[in-house]
Design a protein that fits this description.
Number of helices: 6
CATH superfamily of the largest domain: Response regulator
Largest sheet: 5 strands, parallel
Order of helices and strands: EHEEHEEHEEEEHEHHEE
Strand content: 15-25%
Helix content: 25-40%
Number of domains: 2
CATH architecture of the largest domain: 3-Layer(aba) Sandwich
Radius of gyration: 18 Å
CATH topology of the largest domain: Rossmann fold
CATH class of the largest domain: Alpha Beta
Length: 223
C-alpha cells in the first residue's frame, strides 16, 4: 500500500511496530535516522510517511524530527506507549497520533489518514478489485456502486484480506490481527464474521473470499 519509514533510536528484534507495518502490507524500512526523502530507498520507492516511536527518544529530538518531516511535506505519525499517554505533548503536532499497542488495521488507516491530511486527494487511497471498492478514508465499501453496510470487524477483515490478495491467512492469524492478542473467544468467530461478510459483498458468480480447507481464507483478485 505505502512506503513507510519507522524511526526509533532503539529497535528490538523483531520490533512490534515494524511487524505491524509489514502485516498492514507496507513496504517498511527502519532505522535511527531520517532518510533522504527525495531518493528511492531499498524498496524502490520514495518515503510516503514516517512513523516516529516516542518511546525511544527525547522530546527535543522528536520535535526536531517532526519539524523536519513537516518542512519536507512528508506525513509524520507519532507512536505513544500506553504508559506515556499523559505525558504526550500536543504541541509536537504530528499529522496523526497512535497509542501502543497498535494493530495492522488501525496502523493502515492512520497512515492513510496522515497522507490524506498532508497531500489531500493525491495521497488518497482506495482498495479495488473488480466492482468491489474499499474506501480506507471513509470506511465505505461499495459493490458495483452499491454501498454495503459492514460492521467494524467485518470491515477490518475485508481490508486485511484485500490488502494482501492471494495470501492465505489462518483463522488464528486473522483472530490475532483483527481481534487482538488478548481476545478470549475461539477462532469460530472468524468463520461467523467471514460468512456474514460474504453474504454482504458477494453475489452468485462472484466471490471475493476463498476458503482454504483446513487452513483459513484468502482474497481472490478480480480477473
Amino acid at each position: 500500500m505505502y512506503n513507510v519509514f519507522l524511526l526509533a533510536d532503539q529497535l528490538g528484534e523483531p520490533s512490534p511496530l515494524f511487524q505491524a507495518a509489514k502485516q498492514a502490507g507496507f513496504a517498511c524500512l527502519a532505522g535511527p535516522e531520517l532518510p533522504f526523502f527525495e531518493e528511492p530507498l531499498d524498496f524502490g520507492g520514495k518515503i510516503e510517511a514516517v512513523i516516529v516511536d516516542l518511546d525511544s527518544m527525547s522530546p527535543g529530538l522528536a520535535r526536531d524530527i517532526i519539524d523536519e518531516c513537516k518542512n519536507a511535506k512528508v506525513p509524520v505519525l507519532t507512536v505513544v506507549p500506553d504508559g506515556q499517554v499523559e505525558d504526550f505533548d500536543p504541541s509536537l503536532n504530528p499529522d496523526e497520533v497512535l497509542f501502543c499497542p497498535v494493530g495492522p488495521i488501525e496502523l493502515a488507516a492512520r497512515v492513510s489518514q496522515a497522507i490524506f491530511r498532508v497531500h489531500g486527494s493525491t495521497g488518497y487511497k482506495l482498495l479495488q478489485s473488480g466492482d468491489l471498492t474499499i474506501d480506507l478514508e471513509r470506511y465505505d465499501v461499495t459493490v458495483s456502486g452499491r454501498r454495503v453496510s459492514l460492521t467494524y470487524k467485518e470491515f477490518q477483515l475485508l481490508v486485511l484480506l484485500a490488502s494482501n490478495p492471494g495470501r492465505v491467512y489462518s483463522r488464528d492469524a486473522l483472530l490475532t490481527q483483527v481481534w487482538g492478542y488478548d481476545y478470549l473467544g475461539g477462532n469460530r468467530t472468524v468463520d461467523v464474521h467471514v460468512r456474514r461478510l460474504r453474504a454482504k459483498v458477494e453475489s452468485p458468480g462472484r466471490s471475493f473470499v476463498e476458503t482454504i480447507r483446513n487452513v483459513g481464507y484468502r482474497f481472490i483478485t478480480a480477473t
